[in-house]
Structures are given as structure tokens and as C-alpha cells.
Design brief:
This protein has about 120 residues and is mostly beta strands. It has one domain: Lipocalin (Beta Barrel). The protein is about 15% helix and about 50% strand. An eight-stranded antiparallel β-barrel has the order 1-2-3-4-5-6-7-8. A hairpin with a 6-residue loop joins strand 7 and strand 8. The chain starts with a helix and ends with a strand.
């Protein structure tokens, strides 16, 4: 009979588990993001300061402003957009962190279609 009471308590405790997020550890630094585009693995390297993110992808470098909403969410806005699509801000939310990097969710501001990715801190 005691076992019947313990099982729901264990299930309840497991469902309340929140993974720790140490987002402050990833506000600045050098990072790497690998993604698959058209069946090819593409790598992006970026350096983030408190207010800027400088990213190199396919040999091209772009700079964006970084505006932190809270410790785990920020908005990127390209400084020199070349078209209307690049003028749109991107909302980023850090979902989980580890000792090597973080998992995040991102979308254009106002867009409901969110995508996920994983970033590795390299410096």
C-alpha cells in the first residue's frame, strides 16, 4: 500500500524538474553554430559582446546589435541590412545551458514559426 503512495510523489517530483540555465555565462564570448542547409553542414562563428554580435558565415561577416531583454533572451538587429528581410529583428531565447554551450530558440520578431539550434562556446 505504501508503494502506491510513493509512486505518484516520485512522478510529481520528476515533472517539476527545471533544468538550470546559466545564461549569464553566454552573454559574451566566441561561439560556433552548426546547421544543415540543403543537406550540407554549414558552420557559423560569431563573437558576442554585451552590445554587438559579429558573425562570419560562408566567408562573409555581418554585424548586429544585441539588446538583452533579460538574462536569457535577446534581440538581434543587423546594423547594415541589404534588403527588407535583413531589416527584421530576430528574437533569441536560451532554453538550456551546459558547460559547453546552450540550446536556443529563435524567430523573426512577431513570427510564430520558431526554430531551434545549439551553440558551442569556443572561447
Amino acid at each position: 500500500m505504501k508503494k502506491l503512495f510513493i509512486l505518484p510523489i516520485i512522478i510529481l517530483m520528476a515533472s517539476c524538474y527545471n533544468q538550470e540555465r546559466n545564461c549569464k555565462d553566454y552573454k559574451t564570448g566566441k561561439f560556433e553554430f552548426v546547421q544543415e542547409i540543403n543537406g550540407e553542414e554549414k558552420k557559423s562563428v560569431f563573437i558576442r559582446t554585451e552590445n554587438l554580435q559579429i558573425e562570419t558565415f560562408n566567408g562573409k561577416t555581418d554585424t548586429a546589435s544585441v539588446r538583452w531583454v533579460n538574462d536569457c533572451e535577446f534581440v538581434l538587429q543587423k546594423l547594415h541590412p541589404k534588403n527588407m528581410q535583413e531589416k527584421k529583428s530576430i528574437g533569441m531565447k536560451i532554453l538550456t545551458t551546459s558547460d559547453k554551450g546552450y540550446t536556443f530558440e529563435y524567430a523573426f520578431v512577431g513570427d510564430a514559426k520558431k526554430q531551434r539550434g545549439t551553440v558551442t562556446k569556443i572561447d
